[in-house]
Every structure is written in C-alpha cells, then in structure tokens.
Amino acid sequence: MKKLCTILLFVIPFLSLNGIFAQSGTYPNSGLPLNPKSSPLFGKDIIINNQPFQNQENVCVCSAFNGWLFASYTYQTPQGPYESFLKSTDNGITWEEMLNGIIGLPSEKITKLDIIAQGGSLSDLKIFTAICNYDTNTMNGYVRVIRWFGDPFSLDQKKFQIGFTYDIAFASDEVFPASGANPYSIAILYSTYSSAMDSIIMVTSSNGGDSFTSHRIIQISTKRFAKVSLSYGYSPSKSAGRYFAAWEEKDNISSTVGHIYTAHSEPNFDSPFTTPICLDNLDPTATNMCRNPVIACQFDDTDNDSANFTSMILYEKFIPSENRYDISGFYNLQDASSGYYRPISVSSSTNNKLQPDLQYNPYENNFMMTYYDPDGQKLPFLTNDRNLALPDSWMVVSEGYNESSSLSDPKPQVKLNTTQLQGMNVWSKGIAGSNSVAMFDAPYSTYTSTPLEKDSKSALKVRVYPNPCTNYFYLEFAGEVPSTINVRIIDALGQVKMSLEKQNCGQGFRNLRIDLDDIPNGAYLVGLESNTTKYFTRLMVLR
Predict the structure, then answer these.
(1) Is residue 24 pLDDT above 90, yes or no?
(2) Gap between the Cα atoms of 365 and 542, Å rounded
(3) I need a labelling partner for 244 at 20 to 30 A (CA). Which of 172, 181, 201, 325 fits?
(4) Cα angle vertex 443, ends 442, 444, to 5°?
C-alpha cells in the first residue's frame, strides 16, 4: 500500500478573513451523467464564485493535506487588478471567498497566477500564490509571492525580479522531499523580458517557503522567452530529487510559435541546471513551430520500469498544411540520468488542440492531461501510464467534462486532489466579448470514495493492481472487510460490464483476483460496495 494513500481528513472549520460565501453549483445526487455527452466520471460544472461583474481570469487550484481545496483568480478594475482567494472544505462542491483585494496599481495587469498548498498539519499549513504584475505605463513588472499562514490566516508577500515578467510556475517536493530540503523545498520559475536580453530564472526555497535565497539563471537569449512550466521529479533510486523546467523561445514578441526547451537541476534540487535541450529540433516537422509547453514528472515511492522516473513535455505544434494546432511532445523514461527523449502525441483527431495542461498522479502512477478543443467546444481529460508502453494510446476518461459550450480562452488546468487521489479541473467559461467565470469539476464529483483515516484500525483500505492491467487484476484489502461485498466494473458510459458478489469475507479476507477475459480495452470504474462501504477507483485495461 502506497504511503500516500493514508491521509487523515480533518473537518475542523477554516477561519476565514471575510466570511463571504460564493454562489456555487449543486452536488449531483445521481451516478448518471447530468449531460448525456459528458462522462459519468464527472459531475455538474461548479461555479467557484458567481460574480457577473468580474471578468475572472488566471484561475488556478490546489489541494491541501486535509482535503481542503484552495482556488484563486484575478480580474481587472479601473482601480487596478484584484485577486480573489477561496477555499472549499467539501472537495470543490461549495466555495468560501476568504479575501478579495487589490494587488496592483491602476496601470498594472496580471499576466499569470499560480497557487500551491504546503504543510502537513493545520499549524504549519501555508498557501502560496505567485503573481506576475505588469505595468502598462512603465513597461516594467515583477513577481509577487503571497504567503497565507497561521491560525487565523495572515499574509505576507515578497517581490523578485524587476523587469517585464511574462510567465511564472510553482513546484514543490513536499510529498517526497529532496535531499537537503528542510522540511521541503519550493521552486518558482519565471521568464523576463528586457530590451537587450531575456532570461529564464528559478528561485528556490530550501525551508518550506520561509525564505527564497537561491536565484539561478537557467538560460539567456536575445530572442523572446514566454510560457514556462516547472515540475519536481523523484523515485527511490533517484531520491536526491530534481526540478525540471520547460519553456518557449520566440524569434520576436510578435511571433506566434517558436522553440521549446527543457533542462533540469543536477544533481540536487538547488543545483545548476543541465544544458538546455531544444525538443522541437528533434522533430523535423516541428522545428520552430511550437508553443505553450507543459511539463510533468513522476514522483512516487517506486521506480518506473527503467529503474528511474519518467518526465513528459507536451506543447502545441502548428501544422501549416492543415492550418491548425496539434498537441505533441516528448517523454524520457530516464530523465534523471539521460537526455534520450522519445516522441509522444495525443490523438489522431483533426480538431484543433490548444492549451494543454499536465500533472502526474502518484496514487495511480499515471499522467493526467487536459486541453482545449475549440472546434468541439470541449475540454477532454486523458491519462497515460508512467511507463508509456503505448505512448500515443491515451485513456479517455472524458471526451469533454465541461457541460457548457461557452468556451473562448478557457486555459484549463488539471491538478491533483491529494485526498481523493485523483485529478481535478478548473477553467474559465465565457464567450468572446463577455465576462469569464471561474469553473470547477473533477472525476470524483459523481463517484466519491470515502476518505481513509490514517490511524483507524477499522478503516477499510483497498488497492487495485496492476493498473493498467491486461487480463486480470487484484483487489487487495486491509482493515475490517464487510461480510458480503459486491464488485462492479463500470465503463465510461456508466454501463455495468461485470458484477459479482463475494460472501463471508470477514476480517481474514485479503485478496481477490478479478478475471477480465470479456472486458475490452478501455477506462473503467471498479466499485466495491456493501451495506456499510462504498469505494470507487479507476482502472485501465490495456492489452
């Protein structure tokens, strides 16, 4: 049983700064999809904060140790840019606005916002938001980091690099701390413009965000840097831990496409970076035709099949002959020790694919990704196993989890919920010319497993392995098992493909083999149900 899978869910009320409650969507009360075209793995779209006068942009979300979710977004006013900071204690069903305040001058705009939650108890819980401010009068900007901490929460803030800062990204190693971090490290990657030279810079804290003392310039160029992405990689054989970066370089400020680079710290989290590799040059059809990179790395307590950990970089690739964008990229099964990158793509669909986002799930050992399909007005949700035996065969969890087709520039995000052990999504809904609204949804919105108590001897703990599987899998139990259980396998359309009953399980029952000879390849839910227990998890059948 993975050590990540026993997380204590607290229900202590959070002390808000304002006590202002948002208008939210309602929790679905049925296992059937509310939208016949959407996946039953997702529930009803939830409005995070229903304020029609706000044009809500840069929406982002994170998960704390105890199941609380935190979201933030920005909106512009004549007085200056504002940030709204919200919290949910019920896995995103309802949201409480904790603070809504101005974060810049009237001439300033926000180009990017990111958020992470840190800490393993209420006493050391900290929420960090990183903001890129840009002054339209002076053409200067800065990185602002706001830290929320204490009980009740208070805040402080820090500023970095003065200059035009375009993009910013957060990463942390809290779950599997890197060597030399105390208690964990936080890294911030950002891109800056100047009249003569652009830079990619990483700032690192080795003490959980109390101070940021390490500043490293990763790359400089006379060309233009823009979008950046950052991830942390870890596995038992590479336990020093490293930060991995990806960024785009354009010929000039008006260029729509360019090159994609990647590099990582070596050999430790705060070490100098390796020589950057231009990934699109590895694909003759993609050279200088790419943009919007995202990176995610494996971080868990087992090595991949290559005795290492896996990294993946995806980006938008322009196809001139078809006048559209696709999503392509590369992966590396030995990224901690090798520069051998292999190509990967998302699907053969001829629809445009824009704005990819990527996250690793250590609970299911897979990569989760989402993107924007403007032709179909959809936000798909896909997964792929960390070993990438079939790199271009993604499991489709949902062809489009958004219920509303009002999408213009949604910038969807997929993040990890550390108590539901699954992904969650935020995006901006709104057609061109009208205000956007920050939205939330997640695969667990319909089927929600009961959180497992860390120290309870009676808590039922369940593991499904191997996952992905071929012709069979095992249900492994720990704790007190109900005397009779029903196991169901449900496909992506909500149809029960297999159902069986196991009687007289009792305390001594530990393992059940499920044969899948009649189950085709695809994504499924495995349900374990009794009079007192209901548990669902995802399973991929891949032969």
Answers:
(1) no
(2) 15
(3) 325
(4) 90
